[in-house]
Amino acid sequence: MSVAKINLDELNNEALLVEEHESMISIYWGRLKRHRLAFISLIVLALIILGVAIGPLIMGQMTYYNVQKDAYVNYARDTQDLQSKNVSPSSDHFLGTDELGRDVLFRLLIAGRLSLTISLSVVLIQVSIGIFLGAVSGFYGGWVDSLIQRIAEFFIILPALPLLLTLSSILRNVRIPGIPPEWSQSIFIIVILSFLGWPGSCRLSRGVVLSLRNQQFTEAAKALGMSDLGIITRHMIPNALPPIIVLATLGLGGVILTESALSFLGFGINPPVATWGNMLQNAQTDMLTAPWKALIPGFFILISVLAFNYLGDGLRDALDPRLKL
Amino acid sequence: MINYLIRRSLQMIVTIIFATFAIFVILNAVPGGPLSGLNQTGNTRDRLSDEQIARIEQALGLNKPLPLRYLTWVAGEDWVDDVAAVIGRSEAWANYQTPRCIDAGRTNAGAQTDLETSPCGRGILRFDFGVSWQMARGQEVSEVIWGRLGNTVRLMATVSVLSLLIALPIGIISAVRQYSILDYVVTTFGFFGLSMPVFWLGLILIIIFGFQFRECFGIDACKEAFGSLPYFPSGGVESSRILPGSIQDVFGVAKGSSFDRIIHLTLPTLMLTFASLASWSRFMRSSMLEVLRQDYVRTARSKGLREYVVIVKHAARNALIPVITIVVFEIPAIFSGAVLTESVFSYPGIGRLFIGALGGNDWPIVMAILYISAILVVFATLVGDILYTLIDPRIRFD
Amino acid sequence: MSEVKEKKVLVEVKNLKKHFPIKSGLLQRTTGWVKAVDDISFTIYQGESLGLVGESGCGKTTAGRTILRLVEPSDGSVIFNGTDVATVSKQDLKKLRQEMQIIFQDPYSSLDPRMPVGESIAEGLRIHTNKSAEERYDQVVQMLTRVGMRADHAKRYPHEFSGGQRQRIGIARALAVNPKFIVCDEPVSALDVSIQASVLNLLEELQDDFGLTYLFIAHNLSVVEHFSDRVGVMYLGKMAELATREELFRNPLHPYTQALMSAIPIPDPKQRKKRVILEGDVPSPINPPTGCRFHTRCPLAYDRCKVEEPKFVDYGDEHFAACHLLDEGKPSQLPDMNK
Ligand SMILES: Nc1ncnc2c1ncn2[C@@H]1O[C@H](COP(=O)(O)OP(=O)(O)OP(=O)(O)O)[C@@H](O)[C@H]1O
Ligand code: SF4
Ligand SMILES: [Mg+2]
Predict the structure, then answer these.
(1) Cβ contact (<8 Å) for A224 and C165?
(2) Residue A1, pLDDT score
(3) Is the torsion defined by CA of A189, A194, A195, A199 positive or negative?
(4) A69 and A5, same structural domain?
(5) What is the rounded average pLDDT of the residues B228-244?
(6) Residue A313 and residue A311: Cα distance in Å, rounded?
(7) What is the ipTM metric for this complex?
(8) How many domains is chain A partitioned into structurally?
(9) How many whole angstroms from C178 Cα to the centroid of ligand 2?
(10) Which ligand is nearest to the CA of C34?
(11) Interatomic CA distance for residues C95 and C87, integer angstroms
């Protein structure tokens, strides 16, 4: 049996799966584009983010006829018009007005800013805490690991919604001095949601670190004389990041849902500050006369959460290194 | 195995102790003290003056040292003077019980069997949660909760059973027919279920089946012909009077009858079921897919067994195992859903009681519900764990 | 097969032990020890291939990893070219790492899935040399072609290759730092039989070309029969027997070796062979049997075996074995169950 011949056979049969080599990023991108719903979601999210970012800026320059003031005024979050409460969509108010005559579209866009910002902050914080604790837990093992895991388990076991409600109800009347009350409310909500939400990413990153520690390629790096830090930065982090990105993307949707539920129940961000959740608060009383108030903010919640979920799903497939496409 | 059970139960007890501790600390961390909210409630009739609050504080023993308050909250105060006597600190501890308890001669003697009249707290471990401050001022919390429990249990039980009955077959079929149109619909539906704010779904249900049915969707022809479509009540547990044209009216259901209650339960159930249906059918689907890939299923097929037999006898049974345990883990999550559902539908259950108590700073009720739900969750986790280990031979008890 | 002419010792393993603690409970107290490698001694000569054989879980991989100090040894020493690997300082160990490399059993987890294989191969050069990116690339290409792959493979990711190709890449990675000694941990047991031969041939060629010394780990004797100059047999963390290949196959002294040998399939069905079936499973290394570790399964065991541990003794011409029967000069041949 000649060595050269076998090599050739093997190469010809099995190596030519991918003729053109592509960079990892372009592979990921290509796969994501092929996941149609994830790609659409990405576009939808980009539009929503663009809309809430610049929409209020543009609308803020535009004017409408305010019946109560009998004047043309700029669109604003809190400008009321008690003469035209709960009016249905019109050219002045594309999505109608609410029970105080405020423009629903403008509030919706401003609310989107807050809801998305809160969600992003919470996910960033809880994922950072989670990654850090999980990595420590998996890397050091021993009693550190036991302790962190018991704490995480405890947090997972806690009844989430009741506890969230309790915490935010306790902090409801507290203000951080020196900053606007609406900010301090948002900060509390962010803190509470991050505080209760880290165990998911902690467990994930611990699992990843543990499995990476047992992968032979980290041992190979050690055998080549690579330092612990080198192994962590060159091998562990690049491998741990993708599942965490997926988890974080799915988490973005989850936080939007939780925040909106809290605000809906009156224990999140309180009016006049607008979030998608608290815009639904008063919708209930006027459901018959002004159903758009209930339909529209909920629809935006649904669409953005759905987009985050589909995007996460698509990323899960796209970032899988073992997947041949 | 026995060892494992004992260890898990011990862990469970420790968890519950930690949970009580956390609950206590959280609620006493309220800036300005737990009573601070009572003079700020929106409703002026319910608002208390600072003096009243100080009196309540004294009466409830809120001026006692925190550790002792925690102990008495957990374990009751009927033992305090006995212990003080034993360790020779009767004098120092003389005022450690609440005035109510001291007035009664520091014991529950004679009232032992009757929770309502026992003046010395018996502690949450013995399911004495104290007295409501606000929602039902002066009433025993356990009584208030008991009065609402039935409604919530009915809702949660209906939802669980219904979700299982629908989710399991759907999951199985969509796994067996992977990539079919049905599968596509089911997975899409699952994504919507996960992404939908449940309370919003509730609002939409009310808009459609409550208001729009009543208004015939604003279609004149419909109005002329029927007046209104048989519409659903938008909230509550039963009707105080039967509205003309409502579903009860059309079907001749008497107010307060069990049919009336079922009709009231319909929309809340729909809303909650939708939420759990989505995730449970996903579990079932992926579990089933997993099993269908296994060798023994292929073997069964290659032996020429009929497809139906393979799927039902071999695959579905095995696929059910992990799903059931997950469902057990998930049951407490329905309670979270109940909080939202009950708020949307003004349904007087535990969830709405909880929201009301939070809004009114009625901390004894809040603490009681948190404690009970913590026990429920821990218990469900334990049962789920045990089921899982019992069923899955790969897990060893060490 | 390379002929061993002058015998220069490259690696000397002395009383090497590796015990893994078993921890449990919240406080993570050590409640026991896995005696994965328990006092083994042997030498590896320059340029030879020493086979290490034993059933799954007997501590072969752990022995290899401990020799390379990928895990800290619990006790004993490993003298490599005059330096004790077990106690050498961190800086010196890093330098030593160029000289000793390892090839792994599982070609799927031995390459970082998110790194182009060229980068993986260049990793050692990055650590140990100041070569520029181009120089490294040149050497990567050189290594790749040497193991029978193409230059353009360097930019691809592991998932684009078959198991055999990944194993070649793993070999290239080890070879890139120009080592003297390579631990081959079952390099072919995860591969299809058709590919096994080509990888083994490659390893053999490389040994001749680069003057490599191998510790070649395998879980059955049939692979080492064609590959090793000398063969060591391990059982439950201990060395049972060690001899040159010819000697071991001609005259296996230890009952365990004989049992292993009877398990090798013979290509020629007409040729009859002694059949020995071992009863029971390998005991756990957590509480290994007292005395001779093999006594729970050894058909020849007698009372002394249960209490006293046999010594690993040279019975002439560097044929080492650990069995009381040999010590007492009694015959240690197992009966043939065919009869
Ligand atoms: N890091 C570790 N911690 C605890 N125990 C370990 C560790 N690594 C190995 N062991 C144990 O040491 C024993 C020997 O394992 P080892 O991997 O060396 O066996 P092996 O002979 O290479 O087996 P195989 O043929 O399956 O590769 C096993 O019982 C294993 O469970
Ligand atoms: S020492 Fe005893 S038990 Fe061990 S191999 Fe020899 S005869 Fe068998
Ligand atoms: Mg091994």
Answers:
(1) no
(2) 36
(3) positive
(4) no
(5) 79
(6) 5
(7) 0.87
(8) 2
(9) 42
(10) 1
(11) 14
